[in-house]
Amino acid sequence: MKEMIKCLVVFLAVVAVAVPAGAAEKNMVYSSPYGITTLDPSASYSTEAQYLANMYETLIRVNPPGSKEMFRYVLATGFTASEDGLEYTFNLRKGVKFHDGTPFTAEAVKFSIDRTRRIGKGAAFIWGDLQEVQVIDDFTVKFILKSPAPLPMIAASANGSYIMSPAVGDEGPEWFDQGNDAGSGPYMLKNYKSGESWILGKFEDYWGGWSGKHVENILVKYTKDGLVQLKMLQSNEAMLAGRLPIDSYAKVRAAENTKVLDGPSYVNYMAFFNTTRAPLDRQKVRKALAHAIPYDDIIKIGFDGMATQARGPVPRGQFGYSEKVYQYEYDLDKAKQLLTQAGFPDGGFKLTLTYAAENVSEGRFAPLIQSEFKKLGIDVEVKGIVWTQQWAMAKGDPKEAQDIFLLMWWPTYADPYETLYSLLNKEKGKPVWNLAYYVNPAYDNMIRKAYEATGSDPATALVLYIQAQNIAQKDVPVAWLVDIMATWPMNSRLQGMVINPAYPTTPFFYEMYIE
Fold first, then answer.
1. What is the CA 304 to chain-centroid distance, rounded?
2. Which of these, 383, 428, 436, 492, could form a disulfide with 272 (CB 3.0-4.6 Å)?
3. CB contact at 8 A, 79 and 134
4. From residue 144, how far is each of 76, 242, 358, 415 by CA, in Å?
5. Model-level pTM?
6. Which region, left, alpha or beta, applies to residue 449 given φ > 0 means left and ψ of -120 to 50 means alpha?
7. How many secondary structure helices (H) and strands (E) does the chain include?
8. pLDDT, tens only, 42-56
């Protein structure tokens, strides 16, 4: 509590300079469990995206479901595409300044995308089909592709598409990680204390302006403990919380001073099967295990009902999702039949299942899988280990890796190719996120054809994506568990937040206000 009071004192001291008297309701505290791995907008590929998205901007942004238009223009004001889908020309917004005072022009777009590609970290791979960024004039830029790709979706990505001030020059990630920023967004990074707290403070010269209702300053208090977040929310110390204990949401919904905003999400959970190790190298064994997973219990106990059973790799609501994709159902009798056909009538083998210790939901539902597999004569050792260790184990020798890897996933951009490629493709023999070590050239070719057809013929692309998912479902290198709902616990007075599944971890603070 003393540390929280100290942070608030610093917060009020920082914002007092810029915020006039009587404007206290423009300031808020966000109790967040989401840490920062890097502040470099070119290298970022983790939960810090929710802060960077408030500091940096993309050319366009995907609108929430139900919107009249697919995209919202941000740093761009429009775009056109060539008939062959190999060239996209963007018209840029005038009168924009970066936080360092540098004017925004086409040179900044070229600098930013070229820098991200050169660094080659994080989500840089999304630009794999880009040949060149050409500056036509100060406010026109052209993207030339090597092969057709849904460039607008890529330009709207939650990672890898941020535009930054060219004044950054040759500065590397360490410059950003010292607390510097070079964005054009509504908020600037202030008073950065890694692993503790930081402020997203109002950028006075933001092109969108500050008339109307907007939260102007946000103190982010990095709070890993869900119970501490809950107490801060209940006591009105925090206006917004990131992730509470699963069994506390009903209380938050019922209380007078708090509420929960629910909405669609493209986040899903899965269980990778290590296809390089016996007996999971046998298709029928993997099918048996997929039928032995208690999907309904996982939804109830792991997510307090705030989820639905996944149908495949593409989450519900996103382009590429279809009821035509085969779905495994919980059926122990069928699982036993398949194990018998595979030569394991009584089970008789052991498996190791790992999950990220930081993920409370995985910790709740992993024992459910262990219990059901036990009924088949399969002993499962469940290990909750920190994410970095779990990842290191999977990225080593597959023969020494875990048998089952639980993973929470969300797409980098709102096209199914990135998910289908990243999770089930082996590029040059090395997995990206393919923790099943799955190899199927027919699948790889099909998703690539779908990807190239998306811009010009989305109907054909959808058919191909469905066929590709059914190939994967037949081979079952992964058991797709649940698609979860987005849930944001907050103070009842906080208004304006819109849940956008294309940016599942990002609260856009500029849209919020306090009544």
1. 21
2. 436
3. no
4. 17, 39, 42, 19
5. 0.85
6. alpha
7. 16, 23
8. 999 888 999 999 999
